[in-house]
Amino acid sequence: METLSNGMLPCPGCGHVGRPTLAPGTPPHGHKALCASCGRFLKWLPKPKEEAVVMDAVNYLLVSGTLERNPSVRFREDGTCVCTRSLRIDEQGAQGTFRTFVPFEGYSKVAEVLGERRANGLCRKLPKTGKLRLANH
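Given the sequence above, the corresponding structure tokens read:
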């Protein structure tokens, strides 16, 4: 059954040409088109394409580790403080200590606090929270 350019469907049973009535479909179909005149089944309609839902801050990460060396602190042109360094996470296992190095970047108040603690030598073992962001290189 072919849909006409104006969205009308012809019914092979009663000959009515018009916009079909939509009814719920059964999986995997989204809807079924029924003749508006006699109610006869005309064709299956696909599910509407789902748009990707943007969820800001869905992933939340809490990591406790050691900032390697002193973090580098700089200010962007807009005045935002940025702290960049790698975070070392030590995990004890049966085969010894396993170390993972994670790039760490803090902004605004977090970066300022890390900069102050760096100056005082208090920057070694701190819990960090933030979002996990994966970058393709």
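Residues 9-45 form one domain. Try to locate this feature in the token string yourself.
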